[in-house]
What does this fold into?
Amino acid sequence: GADAEEHRAFIGEKLQIPQLAIDDALRQRHPPKFESLPDDWQFTLVRGLDADTVDINFKTIQLSFFWRGNVLVTRHDRPSASINAVNARIEAGSREVLSAGELLYQILRAMHDRYLPIVLDLETRLEEIEELLISNPSDLLLQELMEYSRQLKKLRRIANYHEVAFKRMLYTEEKQGWNLHVELFDLHEQAERLASLSNLQYEITSDMINGYLSVSSHRLNNVMRVLTVVTVLFVPLTFIAGIYGMNFEYIPELGFRAGYFVVWGVMITISLTLLGVFRHKRWI
It folds into this structure.
């Protein structure tokens, strides 16, 4: 988080890193990547969780790594919980670091170890929401699912980028022999698992959103069907009442002694006939 230009000068002058790689490292938003640089330098760029992140409503920071031999240089704008955790273990003497590549592996593994519990915890919450959608659906649940969908989409994209970057690192290790095959294979496997889990949770969330909307639409259709039936029942009755409610002086049926009861009979017959038709068609 220090002065970016100071970082640029240090990386360029002290490490002799190419300018394009420095631009990528200092850029605020850049997809995770791996790249081999001149003079045996390797450049890895990933996105780790913000130090304050504890659940699916996560924020990320960009981590840049330049490494060669026994030298590892990290660059990030904000504190990294993964780097701090690895440094603490090393200072406590619980970790023996033999190369920059092994130290890089420990940091990247610590970073991914923070991602997985978030996805696994979300699985439990999604199961609870699924039951609530059946027993007591509400717009608040839909709002929560929409937020999960947005975050899982971001997480899936990050995991896919990491999977590609670690696969390239594994391929490069096979050619150059860094003695990190097992470690890099483990990183690639972790990224693949994170991508798979986040994609699965995203699909489950999308299915529940679609299910909620389908149930809401079905309930609305039922309400509209009842209202339509009521409307159809009263339209002919209102028409008859309107005809005989007109203020003309001469209406033939006005002089008919049983006219009132005949009109009632006609209206009741129409209503019962319509109800029978609706029941036959299973609209009610």
